[in-house]
Amino acid sequence: MSGNSTEPETSASIKITCGDEDIAGFILDAISPDNLQAPHGVDIEAEALGDTLMIEVSCSRGIGSLIATVDDLLSCIQAAEKALEEVSG
Fold first, then answer.
1. The CATH number fitting domain 10-88, selected from 3.40.190.10, 3.90.650.10, 3.30.310.50, 3.40.50.150
2. Under a CB-based contact definition with an 8 Å cutoff, are residues 18 and 80 in contact?
3. Could you tell me which of 3, 27, 37, 80 has the fewest CB atoms within 10 Å of its CB?
4. pLDDT 10s digits, 56-81
């Protein structure tokens, strides 16, 4: 366990089927800068497997921090999807 030893490590797995391999890659690229700047005690691993985006979030800062991180990631993914719709539509 890393970070604050009084908080147990919590984690979340997110699997999003994008329907297209290119879209999954574009969304991964869009959220990758956020992953590099995750706060201490938060680890985010993301990869595109074909048309599916796989994200693992581990957090030793408590469940509230995990929920906030997942919420932020989903907001970024939603924004990336809307941007792709605007460009392609």
1. 3.30.310.50
2. no
3. 37
4. 999 999 999 999 999 999 999 999 99
